[in-house]
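Recall the central idea of this unit: under ordinary conditions, the amino acid sequence of a chain determines the structure it adopts. In this exercise we apply that idea directly, starting from the sequence alone.
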Amino acid sequence: MLQFLRELQAHVIEAKERIGSVADLISELCRIAWEGTGELVWQACISFSYLQYQRSALSEALAKWDLENPLKERVAWVLGEIGQDSESVEKALRHTIESHRESS
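Accordingly, the structure predicted from this sequence is:
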């Protein structure tokens, strides 16, 4: 676990140096949460809790990352943990619920 945290920290530092702004860093973490695999994804999702001061930007970025597809379980979990109430978050969650109903 400690190794994964070190890898995540290194990735975040590298991303921060490469992209420079908090908004871009949030975007990079969202990309990992949506597209990544393995333990790094889980660690990226956990890192969102450290960005609570950016709740609005973070929840909007996660909810709008892929509007055509239902939220991945981990992304829905992060949105719940953030607790930011917004129209786009509600729309993404409703779309996810409807998609699961249709596939059942």
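The chain has one domain: 2-103.
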